[in-house]
Amino acid sequence: MKKIYNNKHYKNNIFRLICSIFLIILTAAVMTGMTGCGNNKNVASGSNTAMVHNSQPSDNNTKAEAQSASETKADMDTQALQETDTNSTEEAKVSDDSEYTSDEQVDDDSDNKDQSDIEDNNEWNGLDEGTNEAANEAANEAANEASGDTVDNRITICIDPGHGGSNEGTKENYDGTLIKEKNITMTIARKLKYYLEQNDNIRVVMTRNFDTAVSLAGRIEYAAANNADYVISMHINSKSTDELDAHGCMVLMSCSRYQPENARFTSIYDRERSLAYSILAKLNGIGIPIANDSWNGNEYKDGILQRLNTVNELYPDGSMADYYGLINEGTCAGIPTIIVEHAFLSNVNDYRNYLSTDAQLDALARADAAGILEVVLQ
Description:
A hairpin with a 2-residue loop joins strand 7 and strand 8. It is built from 8 helices and 9 strands. The protein is an alpha/beta fold. The longest helix has 122 residues, at 2-123. It has helices spanning 2-123, 131-146, 181-196, 216-225, 268-285, 325-333, 348-355, 358-376, and strands spanning 155-161, 171-174, 177-180, 202-206, 230-237, 250-252, 300-301, 304-305, 337-344.
């Protein structure tokens, strides 16, 4: 029995030893596994740490890139602004150059126009020079009205360039050129306007500034609408008959002392007579004699023609009305109105001596201005 027990005890010890070994191995395995898990965890932790550390440079790079991009954008904006300023400056310069070019063109056009006008005057083709003057005058009057300065105490003289448009006046052919009265009167009128306006007390308006026909009534209506104190009409004469080759100057005025209620002066007649004598004296002073035309002594004397109408027309006071429509209309409007016949286009000597050059016409305008100012400034 003991032997059997010893064997049994021996077997139990062997079993326990094997179990202990197994347990040790199992424990070792478990411990090894745990150690491995710990290592893996550390590796993972290390990886995460690496990722975190790696991500920090990434963030720094991003910030650097963002900062760089911002700086680049700022630089680009600055450059764009500089380019815009440069472009704006260049555009402004171009604009200034364009305006300068436009001004140059206007000046060139004006020079061309002036040259054209000189040629036109030499050829008597009647093209207009006074349109710009009329526009400037209208602009000045509009400015005065806008500023409330509507009171104008200057003496207003209405210059009437005789004829115009299809109404050419008297005509003569000299040196192969057809000379027309309407063109000569326009040239004298423009020059007269200039000389009168050198006096600050004088304001000048013109019944026409270009080559168009204006009715006689329309001329006086225009003068009245502009509050004219006088109407001075520019003309060139022509012989009345073939019996006498007339030459020299004369002035036409009213034959009546009729005074309408709206008369500008206490005696229209006396004003016209004073103007007539004064202008005739100035024209005589530059060598033009008193006209020798054949009118009866009751109507023409000392260079002044006062012609009666031929249809027995009367003014409201019962006096005989004037023959010349412009003077008739002027008298009814209460405005002293005269017609200056400077010389005879029908007389070759008058044409050569007084009407054929710009200097001669300028002399006529100066004489007219001196005669007019001598009376109206009294």
